[in-house]
Amino acid sequence: SALLTHVVGIGPKLAHNIVAHRDTNGAFQSRIALRKVTGLGPKAFEQAAGFLRIQNGKNPLDETAIHPESYQIAEAVLAHAALTVASPLEERIQAIRSLTEKTSTETLAKELNCGAPTLMDVLEQLVRPGRDPRTDAPAPILRTDVLKADDLVIGMQLKGTVRNVVDFGAFVDIGVKQDGLLHRTQIPHGTVLKVGDILDVEIQKIEIERGRISLSWAK
């Protein structure tokens, strides 16, 4: 359960509940099944789902870093490539490469009514399902006086690195155990974020027990 506390939105108590639920009911068969865990509400699920992977489950997308909110996009991409979620990886790689060679990401994003950064992450995960989108990004520029979540205070401004972009915002590494969530309502209109971007952010809300750090755009 200690490893689970590193996941955005999951504190020690919820991590314990997840392990207890698994021990009682057996391995999780889908990400959706996580919603049955005591204390794992809609907000925690929204923040954590993309980082909790289900191996050998009912839906192959559960093994990727694609957030459940983007499954519809992933399925539409696969349909464009004449594939399904059950298609073998090698077949998927060839078909998606062919699709992206014929159609630009911007055009495909418009056709699927989604943001280009989200689509790029989905495409990457469909051909490299085991990759953690956070590992290829540069390390954050850290403040020397911030080492753990307990050092954070509301209103503090610091730099962070975008580790994952989802429809509802972006997860930003600010140098502590858990990434902070920069909700889409906090991102200036017209700003397009991508993994690896370095931002100036401000601590808006801290919920240590729940493993949540809410960020705003630093003014």
Q: Give the N-to-C terminal Cα separation.
A: 37 Å
Low-confidence runs of at least 5 consecutive residues: none
- Rg, Å, rounded: 18 Å
Can you write the helix and strand succession as a string?
A: HHHHHHEEEEE
Count of alpha and pi helical runs: 6
Number of strands: 5
| Biggest sheet: strand arrangement | 1-2-3-5-4
What is the CATH C-level name of the largest domain? Mainly Beta
Shape: flat
Please give the CATH architecture of the largest domain: Beta Barrel
What is the CATH H-level superfamily of the largest domain? Nucleic acid-binding proteins
Oligomer: single chain
Strand percentage lies at 15-25%
Tell me the domain tally.
3
- Overall average residue pLDDT: 85
What does this entry look like structurally?
The structure is a single chain. With 219 residues, the chain is an alpha+beta fold. It folds into 3 domains: 3-63, DNA polymerase, domain 1 (Orthogonal Bundle); 68-127; 149-217, Nucleic acid-binding proteins (OB fold (Dihydrolipoamide Acetyltransferase, E2P), Beta Barrel), CATH 2.40.50.140. Helix content is 30%, strand content 16%. It has 6 helices and 5 strands. The chain has helices at 12-25, 42-48, 71-80, 89-102, 105-112, 116-127; strands at 157-166, 169-173, 180-183, 198-207, 212-217. A 5-stranded mixed barrel has the order 1-2-3-5-4. Strand 1 (157-166) and strand 2 form a beta hairpin. The radius of gyration is 18 Å and the shape is flat. The N and C termini lie far apart (37 Å).
